[in-house]
Amino acid sequence: MTAPPPVSPALTALLARVVDYAGLFPPARLPMSDALAAYADYQHGSDAWMLGRFVIPASRLEEFDEVGPELLPDSASASWALAALVSADAEVDTRSVHAFNAYHRDVRHGAVHVDTVEIRVSHAAEIAAADEFISGFDAFVEVPIVEDPEPLIAAIAAIGAKAKIRTGGVTPDAIPGARHVVRLMRRCLEHDVPFKATAGLHHPLRAEYPLTYEPGAPRAAMFGFLNVFLAAAFMRAGLNDSETLALLEERDAGAIIVDEHTVRWHDHSMSGTELHRARQDAVAFGSCSFREPVDELRGLGWL
Question: What's this model's pTM, rounded to 2 decimal places?
């Protein structure tokens, strides 16, 4: 069998460890055993370089331990990193996270650890209140973006956390406007706050897709993960908001050129080194599917 072509270093810089696997969540909503088995399998595949953390609600960490022992790595060198979703009761949930990490310090229980927590807020005061509990973790704070999120992003910056944006869902009304996404990116850049995205980013490019895997599922224009991550990168390089909006809404695969050392969009280009730095702004995206984003990239001829 013919070996796959080597991955472009520029594409590697843009997409390394970019997919936080959220198989427990809609629309996949896999049982814990199936999600863990899939994640373990992905760790050993040729596309593992794109695989990030396993995403799990903090309330399901005990279930993880009940289901996972035979699937977990048993050496620190192969340890899995987890992202735990913390509810409004951050004190209780982070206590569970600390207990989980303490248990897994003994790799005989499985070499895994929660290094990232994610929490959803609506008001800046909630961010300051949560800081007592999420401090010490790589923390992402999900914020609403219909209104200007500047006060929330400023509050996130004040505690040294990162932002999280919801870019889709299982109904059309869950998909935010592209201008709102651009504004969120600009506010994050202004306050030097990195962000991650979640929901609705299964596909590389902006287009209309079914919102779930059910027959006859509603369709809507979904964001592409390449659009989002390139938009953040080029904004860091000086792209203005109207140009960033055009990139975020780009649907033509031929407009994005990936070669060994650069990624280009029309007259704009970035080197692998610049893209690597830009990934400090746009950290990852959560997806209930790992294979779908990877396989569609392969279908475009980029893997």
Answer: 0.94
